[in-house]
Amino acid sequence: MSLKFEVYGKVAKPRSAVFNAVVDPKELSSYFTTGGASGPLREGATVTWDFADFPGGFPVKVTKLVPNERIEIEWASSEGGYDTHVVMTFEAVDASTTLVKISESGWHDTAKGQEASYQNCFGWSQMLCCLKVWVEHGINLRQGFF
After folding, report:
1. What is the pLDDT of residues 80-102, one digit of tens each?
2. Can you give the residue ranges of every domain in the chain?
3. Which residue from 3, 8, 135, 140 could staple onto 117, CB 3.0 to 4.6 Å apart?
4. CATH dotted code for 3-137
């Protein structure tokens, strides 16, 4: 069995604004990486994401970036010893709506790998909700959530 998932949601803003809210560390830190993001997402870069509710930096390796269309990253599985692969896509539904899809794969087919995949599915689902509320209304949904 291959452990993977995909979550998705629509954001009522143009694709460039939604994409920027993910790649810009100031924007990302306003609603998701509430402990900070060390730099912008750029292909070939490794940045650190910190979360106030999960202290400690998480190295994020940007393996592919197509402006306003696609971001691919790798980061360590919480199971340890290997990385998982995350793909984010941004599709213009119309001039003012963007469909964001996030998939993650690569966990080992173990009980710990399965648990880690479920935790990340929860996290990415929450990220999409927080992204939507931040970009559309300027509200940090994560504040006080945990």
Report:
1. 899 999 999 999 999 999 999 99
2. 3-137
3. 3
4. 3.30.530.20
